[in-house]
Here is the input.
Amino acid sequence: MLFISMFMAFSIFPAAATPSLPLPTLEAIPNVITIPEAGTIVSIEIWAKSVVEDWEIIAFQFSVPFQKEWLAPWLRVKGTFMEAFVNGGEQGTFYVVVSDIPINPKWSLTTVAVMILPDSTGAYHSPFPSGEGRLITLRYEALEAGEGQSMPVEITDIMILDQNLNDLSQFNSGLIADIDLDPDTLNLKSLGQWVTAYIELPEGDVNDIDVSSIKLNGTIPVDPEAPYAIGDYDSDGVPDLMVKFSRAAVSEFILSNGIKFGNVTLRLFGYDIKGHAILGSDTIRVKMPGDNNNDGQVDMCDIGIAARAFGSSLGNPRWNSVADENEDNKINMLDIVVTIRNFGKTY
Ligand SMILES: [Ca+2]
Ligand SMILES: [Ca+2]
Ligand SMILES: [Ca+2]
Ligand SMILES: [Ca+2]
Here is the structure.
């Protein structure tokens, strides 16, 4: 009975349209130590918490200051958290620990970097770290001068890298963006100038977005020559920011991953002037010229698709964007000729 009434109490609050995305945090356990008898070992665990897979995190770096008259670095024990996300175990994790970096006469730092190594091709892939877990355990030997003293354990100089080397520790929170990429079907050999992204922020203000920070898949920046604008492209009452990427750069990126047809999800990352990291993605279809059904071959099936849409234009019931090879919003002989010219090709 109690559970039912609690559930109902919760359900009367409307859910936020799109939740913001928490950023990872680091926590020392314990966060205060009392130095024991000299010669005894003190253990400090460093945990990563609130790690969301969407951020695609691959590395943590941080420092832990300690009073060097009170503690002497002794041993460190690798964690278990990053080890669970090692690209199928191909290369594992990599640790760099420098135990004793003096910062002033009284204090030293232990600096730690923990990273997942890429697979043998240099790529990272899912699953990326999520949840929480122990990154490392730092052990110190208690010294006589510290006996009975208390010391807060702080974590400083934090760096949290995603696979595109964005430092997530620079941001105070994360926002999920709704992304609509245009065109929906990208001809990888087309001469079109741009791929357009419409970015909506259900929480946050698109006016605050730093356009120069936006990248697709970590490598493709917004084309600085292209216009950008704020409007409401999809007429849903939520303002959207339109930015454009070089189509050649997007096609090259997709082709360089060995993809010639099918669905591709592109990830957009950026930030705004208020310290929010912004993340979103959209899936588009990609094709090579003439391959209207996205199966890697140009044959009668593709000509059939173009023929069925022949004579239509954007908005017409028979309209089919995949057959519009020259992207002029009409399906006519110019498009069919492209399919026929590529007839028999296997991509
Ligand atoms: Ca779209
Ligand atoms: Ca909108
Ligand atoms: Ca085909
Ligand atoms: Ca056309």
